[in-house]
Amino acid sequence: MACAGCGTGAEGKPAGCKDNGGCSSGGCNRLNVFDWLANIPLSDSLAPFDIIEVTFNNGSRKDFFRNVTRQLFEKGEMIAVEGVSGFDVGTVSLTGELVKLQMKKRRVEDTPEVKKVLRRATTDDLQRMNDNKSREKDALIRSRAIARNLGLEMKLAEVEIQADGRKATFFYTADDRVDFRELIKVYAGEFRAKVEMRQIGARQEAGKVGGIGSCGRELCCSTWLSDFKSVNTTAARYQNLSINQAKLSGQCGRLKCCLNYELDTYLDALKGFPDDADSIETANGVATLQKRDIFKCLMWYSYSGSNKQYPLTISRAKEISQLNKQGIKPDDLKAVEIVTTSSKVKETDLGFADVVGQISLKSLEKTSQKRKQKDRDRQKQGGEQKSASKQEQRSANKGEGRPDKAPQKGGRPEQKGARPEQKGPRPEQKGPRPEQKPRQENRLPQKQQGQQHGQAPGNKPRQDQQRRPPRNKPRNNNNNNNNSNPPA
């Protein structure tokens, strides 16, 4: 079965990668092997090897099956093979002569007990396999709950159900021995299948779960690493790494597998260093070896009671060791002067200057300043327009004789030449106009008071309109009588 990135085309072949499953995308080819003998023609007298390698569960498990159907299967095809009391569906991962080497590597013998290939997987086989695979997540959750209720000290990592649903394999990790005889009975009644319990290590569990390592890449055990070798702290000491358990441990809680990747290179480089120069004697005392630098071919020594370290070349360390064997103590170690990177830059003109943190963004600053200046100019123009419109309105109000205080009771007469858009009486204004500031109550000239309380100049008053009396004067019905004569 192809990975999610490739998809599955006709007859179970990957549709996207065109490499029959070897798309190097991670999970689908973790246990695959490149068949470099696939295109080599065989003579007529030699028959092709009749055992093929089949991968199950998206590359997490593989097994060998004998091809008794005499059909030619290509890499990436889905086939049905013998299972436990039924059949199982897997993907062809390797065919031909290279299968012999894989069987020898995995210590599998070519015996008659090797299971057989039944047929190419049909549509019904694939549909049945997908239905049973969709049950695995729910089965894992349910199986963990059952194990917790029984009080067993174990951790279930994965559940694999056979394509026909007649067998379920439970992968678990445990520190001590677990008595799961009662657990198997409960599982068999719960899942209606034959139960197989298989214990795995912490590294295999991390490979099944997956994750991102401290290097920023996907875990090696979940992508390409298939066999796990023992790792100890000696590998870290050979590589001059600090013995820090937190940094040297992976997500599985064990030492990282990558500690073994460069170990052979370090061992080959350390062959040129002397083995009998762990401690050397000089006139100043005994110097003890602290570390070896295989990249610079230096050996670092320090005197007892001193924290200062002296780098020596390999030839100088061998020379002092030979002198000590003859009973001679040299006056000085003649340590090598280490030139730092900063001093190299000062002495050598590299032709460029380090301008990190010195680059100014004046172009962006000018753009922002121009934008701000445009906004200010726009605001000034808007303010000038508002002030001009307010001044025009004020002058228009003065010329038209518009009342500033209270409106007339009888309504405002129509003004023919003032504002043509207002035909009816103007509604009362309770306060000042929003664009005009409220005017203070000042004493107006008599002429303006007459204009204010009367009609606007140029307009004749109506006959039925009465003139309002001036302010601050008592209202009398008869204007000709005196104050001494009271009203009737």
UniProtKB/TrEMBL annotation:
Cited InterPro entries: PSP1-like, PSP1_C
Residue ranges with Low complexity bias: 446-455, 475-488
| Protein name, as recorded | Regulatory iron-sulfur-containing complex subunit RicT
- Can you give the residue ranges of the PSP1 C-terminal domain? 115-200
Return the annotated region ranges for Disordered: 365-488
| Signal sequence segment | none
Lineage of producing organism: Bacteria, Pseudomonadati, Bacteroidota, Chitinophagia, Chitinophagales
Species assigned in the record: Chitinophaga defluvii
Compositional bias, Basic and acidic residues, is annotated for: 365-444
